[in-house]
Specification:
The chain is α/β, with parallel strands linked by helices and 439 residues long. It is 42% helix and 13% strand.
């Protein structure tokens, strides 16, 4: 099938590449001319395991194309995916301006039946808004053309996005007609051969499912972080608590790892957007509001722990290992490292020396005018003459460092483990002062 798609960033680029991998012909549209030019030269703008080889193969075999000319490629496709960003506006609501632009652009150039598939994370009743925009554009052109709108939320995770798409746990759709249903079955038939479900639900449910999923996972993280904070007060061990409650199949072990917060662009923005959508319908999401409050208070917990050990950080040198919001990605959107660095800068530290295996370039663009943030080429280089080390991302290469070497490089002896990945005895035996979350 011929498919035209709007936006090529992070998990969306994975989505379009995987559709091409099963022999759909996919045209990706983006307004960023440099990104499109890079993609045509096989320069991938993001890091995601296995993505580069898939883009290369499908681009070479003429199944995956990139362009900035939206109107030219609308007639190319039977199905048109809209996957543009819905970032929070100043009131924390999902900003739908890009969704509106895509809907308007598509139908200004449409000449025959199209299926408009919304894959962006959007509030309930966005379908009606898109339908009205499309109909207005057709009325302006004095055309009577049939069209269908489909709601098809996305559930991929950065770091495992390729695997998630190729072997999904569920594919959720709402369709207006049997014709649209046939098209969605045709698009996804290669991914449901292993009996993974392609499910069709009602409109409003399809628009709420993604928000509900992210809010629930965020709630699990905030819950265990709150238990971790209490565990510190009463001298309990959050690692044991989360491990043993996770053995209860009703609870499960995933998303019960205490740490600095849930980071990521999707969880914070989706939690906030769901709270604001509730207000539109006079509903108060009390549990989800509490989830957000706990998460906000957790963001700079590592700095609070550091201040207990060094009450005055003025002119101190601090090392940070890990900048991405989680390992195996270069994504720093809403990463806790940014909040930690900003708080340290306000406390007048002399230098913040940072290292991350993948996310350095993205973070350099954030702090290109801040001389006190120093980017190092190796993890141990970040430790030179530093008074404390803060771990913020649990990359594999940070899991088993040579702490004798760490001690030799550092000027001070303070280690703050924001991800609870190190063994206390290994560190304390070398006369480090060691702080972690929930212990």
């Amino acid at each position: 099938m011929k498919i035209t798609i709007f936006w090529t960033w992070y998990v969306w680029l994975v989505t379009w590449t995987c559709l091409a991998e099963v022999w759909h012909e996919v045209m990706c549209i983006d307004i960023d001319e440099k990104k499109v030019a890079d993609l045509k030269q096989w320069i991938i703008p993001i890091y995601e395991p296995w993505l580069e080889e898939l883009v290369l193969r499908n681009h070479k075999e003429w199944r995956l194309h990139f362009s900035t000319d939206a109107r030219k490629w609308i007639s190319f496709a039977t199905a048109i995916f809209s996957a543009v960003g819905t970032p929070p506006d100043e009131n924390h609501r999902a900003d739908l301006k890009f969704v509106k632009i895509v809907a308007k652009t598509v139908w200004e150039s449409m000449e025959n039946h199209k299926v408009f598939i919304n894959k962006s994370t959007v509030p309930v009743w966005t379908w009606e808004m898109c339908k009205n925009i499309i109909q207005e554009e057709l009325d302006k052109r004095k055309l009577s053309i049939e069209f269908d709108i489909v709601s098809n939320p996305e559930f991929l995770k950065e770091w495992t996005a390729v695997k998630d798409f190729m072997t999904p746990d569920r594919i959720v759709c709402w369709v207006e007609s049997e014709k649209a249903k046939e098209i969605m079955n045709s698009i996804y038939k290669s991914f449901i051969r292993t009996e993974k479900p392609l499910v069709f639900t009602d409109l409003k449910s399809s628009e709420i499912i993604k928000y509900a999923a992210n809010a629930f996972l965020a709630t699990k993280i905030s819950f265990i972080n709150e238990i971790a904070n209490f565990s510190e007060i009463v001298w309990a061990n959050i690692s044991d608590i989360s491990k043993w409650i996770g053995l209860d199949p009703r609870i499960g072990s995933r998303f019960l790892h205490a740490g600095i917060w849930y980071g990521w662009s999707c969880f914070p923005k989706d939690v906030q957007a769901l709270i604001e959508t509730g207000k539109d319908f006079d509903y108060d999401f009390q549990i989800i509001k509490s989830t957000e409050l706990v998460n906000k208070s957790q963001k700079t917990k590592t700095v609070d722990k550091l201040l207990k050990l060094i009450p005055d950080l003025k002119w101190k040198n601090i090392a940070i290992w890990g900048l991405a919001f989680k390992p195996k990605t270069d994504d720093i959107r809403d990463a806790p490292s940014i909040d930690v660095i900003n708080k340290l800068l306000k406390l007048w530290v002399a230098e913040i020396k940072v290292f991350d295996p993948i996310a350095m370039n993205n973070m350099e663009r954030v702090y290109d005018n801040e001389a006190r943030v120093v980017f190092t080429s190796r993890n141990y280089d970040a430790l030179k003459n530093c008074d404390a080390l803060i771990l913020l991302t649990e990359w594999d290469e940070f899991r088993n460092p040579d702490f004798d070497k760490v001690k030799d490089f550092m000027r001070g002896n303070i280690v703050i483990d924001g991800r609870n990945i190190w063994n206390e005895s290994d560190i304390v035996n070398l006369w480090f002062s060691y702080a972690w979350i929930g212990k």
